[in-house]
Every structure is written in C-alpha cells, then in structure tokens.
Amino acid sequence: MQSQSFRPRKIILLAFFLTSYLACSDFSKEEAVKGLEATEVVSYWSVRGKFEENNYIRPIVRFRIHNGGSRPVDFVQTMAVFRRASAPQESWGSAFEYSLSGDPIAPGEPSRVITLRSDSYYFSTDEPGSMFENEKWEQVTVEVFLKVGPSSWKPAAKLEVPRQLGAPGVEKFLAPSDEG
Predict the structure, then answer these.
(1) Across all residues in the chain, what is the average pLDDT?
(2) Pairing of strands 140-148, 76-84
(3) Which of 55, 107, 108, 142 registers the highest number of CB atoms within 10 A of its CB?
C-alpha cells in the first residue's frame, strides 16, 4: 500500500519539474527573441513574370538578424506582412521562413541575408516599371516579425516598399557602361 501512495507523489513531482523546466525553456526563448534585431532592412519590387497579357510584380523585404544577446540563438522564425494603404489593418500578402536552426546566430553576429517575397502581386498590362504610375496604384508597407521557438512574435521593422524595381544598387548594373 505504501508504494501506491508514493507513486502519485512521484508523478506530481515529475509533472512539477517538467512544467518548471518547460517554463524556464520558454522564458529563455522570450529572452533570446528580445536580443534579436533586424538590420540592413531594404524593400523593393521584383518582376514575377508575364502571363498572357499581364505583367506581375511583387514586394520583397530583405534583411539580416543581429543577435544582441549573450548566447547563440537558433530556431529563429521570420515573417513579413505586407499591407496596402487602402486597408492598413488587413494583410494583403505575407511571407514566412520557418527556421534558421541550421545556422545558429552567435552573440554579436548577424545572420545570413534573409529574403521574404510576398505571396500577393500587382498585375497590369503596363510594363513593370510603369505600374508605379498607374492611377490605381496603392502604396504598400511591410512589417517584419521575429520569433524564437515558442516565443511571442517580436515586431522588428516596418517600412514602406519604395516604388522601385530591384534591390537598391541594382541600377548600376542596368546602366549602360562606357567600358567596352
């Protein structure tokens, strides 16, 4: 009989320690995400292609994650939410990267470049570069969020997507060169 009353105590103690461990683990993930910051954030439009009569362009955001914490961080998830000016509270498009777990980010170091492409497009019979001048054009903003494991999503950046095709600096590759 003594062993039967002892077993529930073991189960209760095991449950207590497991709950405490998981709570500490979640807490450390919350602390880890607090130390992360999006850096080198740029946004632009990319040509998705042409289908029948229409050209398609979509917004992109590109950035690195800097680890300002004191420990390496892995299992980082990134999300971008794109919104149109006419409905700033509604998501128009989004992008998500599940995990950077293969590349833990060392303390004080940046991650590799992360590129998130919206799953929504603008389309028109206009040439891609002229779509920005279309009377129906709506400005788009992008918000970037970071998460570590089971932590909460942390807002990391918010900016307007400029009316520009291609990443900043691409112009120098598109301009004619005097060199032969």
Answers:
(1) 83
(2) antiparallel
(3) 142
Residue the block writes with tokens 């954030």: 41
Is 171 part of any domain? no
Range of the domain at 62: 2-166
Please list the helix, strand and coil fractions of the chain in percent, rounded to the nearest 5, in that order.
25, 40, 35
Token pair for 130: 């002229």
pLDDT higher at 166 or 14: 166
Residues 154, 147: contact at Cβ < 8 Å? yes
**DSSP string for residues in 26-71:** HHHHHHHHHTEEEEEEEEEEEEEEEETTEEEEEEEEEEEEEE-SSS
Any idea what the CATH number is for the domain that residue 117 is in?
2.60.40.10
Residue 109 lies in a domain: yes
Assigned token pair, 84: 């149109």
- In-domain check, residue 147: yes
Task: Look at residues 44, 49, 46 and name the one whose alpha carbon lies nearest to residue 63.
Answer: 44
Residue 177: per-residue pLDDT: 56
Residue 179 lies in a domain: no
The pLDDT tens digits for 133-162 are 989 899 999 999 999 988 899 999 999 999
Give the residue with greater pLDDT, 103 vs 171: 103
Q: How many domains does the chain fold into?
A: 1
Can you tell me the distance from the alpha carbon of 176 to that of 66, in angstroms, rounded to the nearest whole number?
A: 36
